[in-house]
């Protein structure tokens, strides 16, 4: 092993207590159930408004009294950074960075907000220290680096980008050839106190917690950053716990995921400091605006507006036919209005215009059903925002904060 690589790699054994005692864990506290339209993260992730906590944190640093602006941390590099800026722009919240080498920027539409570009793990740490009030990071990062704080609140758990999973992977052949589940792997006789299972990961807290909870008794956890797939082929580790998107990199390096091996599923989230929400002026109001814009845009991105002309004796007659079809009932129901034309020199109504919002995935089915009840001249329009009377996630956040 080269000196440089050795300097970046260290190992720590996972202590397994002899007497039963609960391991430290991420305690997910789901907020009250939201409406049926609320979005939720995949299994093992947060609920609509969730606090991330484990053991009692050390005394939190006091909020800086001389700071009056609200600070949000955004990823500084990579695809996550690009997708974050793109999402904010789609919500009419373009980030203005005067110098690409600066770490600070602003959002003109929110004048009392500062943008700070940071590494994702530093965003989580600075939320805990009070140096940031809000942040956009992956749920995996929140879970790994926020495990010692009760001050982190997941405001929006599904920003619809950065989807991945933290997963256990092993070589396809050798001693793992017939291993297809975590249960099988934990029972393997190859691992002993003298020869523990070597697992390399950049997620020391989540990796150790997962292995302990799944009954692994003889494990040595190795910490490393980047190219973890190379460790098993080089003989430096037996397995890895790493982020997986498509799984292509694993397959190309002769590694496989196994049943029950998903540690956590993740995507981008909006996170806030509980203390800032309670104590810093303006943070709650800015959070509300961000949440409203994000929720309205993300909801609209999955829906389409469909307009069709339909013959009928009355608006009620048309509405009755439309409401008999489940895929074109709309958010609350269709909007029906008369289409005026001139017939034999007189203004008359022969058609009614029907407007309805339908899910993108049901578009073709909706078109077929509209045709079956006399719809014609169908127009399809993309939506930018769908604002509810109040987003369920905001109500959940207020409940989580006790407000």
TrEMBL record:
It is an enzyme of class 2 (transferase). GO terms for biological process: L-histidine biosynthetic process. Pathway: Amino-acid biosynthesis; L-histidine biosynthesis; L-histidine from 5-phospho-alpha-D-ribose 1-diphosphate: step 1/9. InterPro entries: ATP-PRT_HisG_long, ATP_PRibTrfase_cat, ATP_PRibTrfase_CS, ATP_PRibTrfase_HisG, HisG_C, N-reg_PII-like_a/b, N-reg_PII/ATP_PRibTrfase_C. It holds the Pfam family HisG. It comes from the Eukaryota. The keyword Chloroplast applies. This is ATP phosphoribosyltransferase. The keyword Plastid applies. It is found in: Plastid, Chloroplast. Its main location: plastid. It catalyses: 1-(5-phospho-beta-D-ribosyl)-ATP + diphosphate = 5-phospho-alpha-D-ribose 1-diphosphate + ATP. Belongs to the ATP phosphoribosyltransferase family. Long subfamily. Residues 119-295 form the ATP phosphoribosyltransferase catalytic domain. Residues 300-384 form the Histidine biosynthesis HisG C-terminal domain. Residues 13-42 are annotated as: Disordered. Its EC number is 2.4.2.17. Keywords: Amino-acid biosynthesis, Chloroplast, Glycosyltransferase, Histidine biosynthesis, Plastid, Transferase, Transit peptide. Catalyzes the condensation of ATP and 5-phosphoribose 1-diphosphate to form N'-(5'-phosphoribosyl)-ATP (PR-ATP).
């Amino acid at each position: 092993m080269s000196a440089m690589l050795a300097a970046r790699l260290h190992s720590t054994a996972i202590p397994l207590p002899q007497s039963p005692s609960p391991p430290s864990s991420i305690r997910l506290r789901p907020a009250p159930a939201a409406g049926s339209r609320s979005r939720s993260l995949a299994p093992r992730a947060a609920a609509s408004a969730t606090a991330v906590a484990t053991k009692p944190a050390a005394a939190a640093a006091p909020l800086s009294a001389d700071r009056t602006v609200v600070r949000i941390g955004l990823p500084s590099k990579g695809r996550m950074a690009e997708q974050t800026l793109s999402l904010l722009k789609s919500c009419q919240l373009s980030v203005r960075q005067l110098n690409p080498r600066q770490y600070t920027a602003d959002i003109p539409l929110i004048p009392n907000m500062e943008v700070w570009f940071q590494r994702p793990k530093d965003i989580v740490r600075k939320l805990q220290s009070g140096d940031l009030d809000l942040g956009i990071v992956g749920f995996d990062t929140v879970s790994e680096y926020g495990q010692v704080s009760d001050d982190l609140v997941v405001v929006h758990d599904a920003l619809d980008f950065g989807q991945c999973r933290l997963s256990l992977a092993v070589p396809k052949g050798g001693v793992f050839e017939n291993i297809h589940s975590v249960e099988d792997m934990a029972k393997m006789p190859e691992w002993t106190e003298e020869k523990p299972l070597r697992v390399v990961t950049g997620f020391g807290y989540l990796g150790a917690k997962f292995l302990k909870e799944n009954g692994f008794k003889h494990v040595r956890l190795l910490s490393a950053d980047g190219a973890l797939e190379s460790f098993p082929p080089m003989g430096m580790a037996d397995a890895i716990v790493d982020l997986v998107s498509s799984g292509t990199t694993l397959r190309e390096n002769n590694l496989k995921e196994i049943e029950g091996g998903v540690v956590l599923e993740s995507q981008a989230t909006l996170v806030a400091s509980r203390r800032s929400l309670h104590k810093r002026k303006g943070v709650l109001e800015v959070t509300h605006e961000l949440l409203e814009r994000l929720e309205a845009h993300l909801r609209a991105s999955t829906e389409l507006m469909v307009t069709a002309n339909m013959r009928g004796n009355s608006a009620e007659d048309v509405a009755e036919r439309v409401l008999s079809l489940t895929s074109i009932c709309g958010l609350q129901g269709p909007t029906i209005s008369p289409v005026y034309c001139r017939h034999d020199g007189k203004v008359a109504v022969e058609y009614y215009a029907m407007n309805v919002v339908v899910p993108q995935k049901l578009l073709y089915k909706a078109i077929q059903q509209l045709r079956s009840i006399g719809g014609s001249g169908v127009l399809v329009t993309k939506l930018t925002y769908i604002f509810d009377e109040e987003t369920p996630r905001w109500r959940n956040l207020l409940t989580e904060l006790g407000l």
